[in-house]
Queue: 3 jobs
Job 1
Amino acid sequence: MIRLEIPGSGFLELEHFVTDFSGTLSEDGALLPEIKDKLNELSGKLKIHVLTSDTFGRAKKELEGVNCTLHVLEGKGHTIQKEKYVINLGADKVVAFGNGNNDALMLMAARLGIAVCLREGCSKKAIEASQILVKSPTDAIDLLLLPKRLIATLRV
């Protein structure tokens, strides 16, 4: 669990980390090299859930050795599926990462939404649904591992 007081905004009590895979933790289906170690470090504080449409069909292989739950979305309505997943975990205990239109409802539902903008880009909807925009998943995870950064960004 991560528990922080954000001056002017109250407390964050996070138990779950829910993230998109393609374009958020990976580029062209390949997990960014430094992310595996970062996720495993973070798993000591939060339960990690990776939700993906698995555009490149490589998520399971790329996440081998990562302490996480992988959920491959099926059928249509991935935007709603992601939002419901966060709600079912208890949205007020969730931090979510994403970059696409299909992440916007998940980012909005979570207690803390962080938009991650890699080379694939970041949709306007994802940015507007988030409280923070970062340039890499490493920067985003470090906000959680080094919480004074998070406090500095969110304080009022």
Note: The first helix runs from residue 35 to 42.
Job 2
Amino acid sequence: MNRLIALTLTAMLAFSQAFAADPAKKAEDLVKKAAAFIKEKGKDAAIKELNNNKGEFVDGEYYVFAFTMADICLAHPANPGMVGKNMGSLPDADGKQFFKGFHEVMDKSGSGWVSYKWNNPVTKKIQLKSSFVMKIDGKDMYIGCGIYK
């Protein structure tokens, strides 16, 4: 009986660690949490918190960024130098206009994933990156969080 309980607990722990380690889910959850914050506290309060590199929307390598629908950066805790700049025509490492992809997925379903190649600041190498983006209705903005594959 003790062995069965031990095996069950081990399986449950492995499942919970695998679930917690799912980077895509973690990124989506962080974006959804930020969307709820925007709805509750408003755009100005959210932009301030999203720019806080030690705030509640930064979790290790995960962070939420924000742009106007015209692709002007409102918040980027990992690269504050981007704030205020129009990034819409910025291509990825292969020349792909990934901001266009952001808009296509948001126009189609309000949120979704877009993949592109980007420099990973940790490995210093170009890697495949996917960002989950979500349009914030009535706020002229969208938010997102990316993960390296």
Note: The helical segments are 2-20, 23-41, 43-50, 98-109.
Job 3
Amino acid sequence: MSDPGPRYVWVDGAIRPGAGPHLSVADRGFQLGDGIFETLRAKSGHVTELPEHLARLRRSADGLAIELPADVETRLAAGIADLLAAEGLDGAAADASVRITVSRGVWASRGLLPPVGEVLVPTLVIQAWPVAPVPAGHLEHGLSLVACSIRRDPANPIVSLKTTSRADYVYARIEARRAGAEDALFLTTSGYLSEATTANIFLVRDAPDGVIELATPSLDCAILPGTTRSWLLRWAPSAGLRPVEGWLTPDELAAAREAFMCSSVAGILPVTRFNGHPIGTGLPGPWTRRARADREVFFGEG
């Protein structure tokens, strides 16, 4: 039986039935993928890192020259609260994934360029779903990644914006599925690690000076600056790890002690195979388990 999806959605300030319809066919988000989004986690009605996500949403909007309302942060925060209440996802035991989508708005004419001298009203949408538990096998055995055939160009200004143009990511997931893996890892045009389709990548490794490092691709590696990524870089010193951001190679990932992915909703998930070969012992390691547990305690996500 197919998933019926959320019972309700929030569209431009109003709670509406989830079955729709909701949008004009002339909406540029539908026609061109001319929009942005954020995905957040809400536990007991409290959204994790809401200011950080809304700041990144505005940065993505600025990058595409989408003019957001001055009070968009207030409107979206109130909309999230109203939608979670409507869906019954604001109770003490509730755990929800929330998606904010913003398109440039409706413009009936054809063409790529946004109109000049016309005021387009952005379409604002919020959706919410219960967070499904991570499959036990993912935590017990870890995930398998493959390198995606699509390369990321660090000079491309779009790669650091969270846009609704996701065809590359869909293609990458299809590649992963065909290879029997759970996700795909993008590489840069020079062959360095970038990011997975919905998560940043980290590896735990031994440094030449004997210190254990927590390493992740730098912001120059065509990645999205994830909020959980930022938390991990702040967390590492308190855990006894030296945080490192840099240009990492697939060989360094293959030779790492441990590896994991991180995202706002899934949290921290172990990665134990890359391109068909085991990483470390081939099982989730102690640093990965500690990072996941510490984050769950810090944000009350467990």
Note: The chain has eight helices and 15 strands.
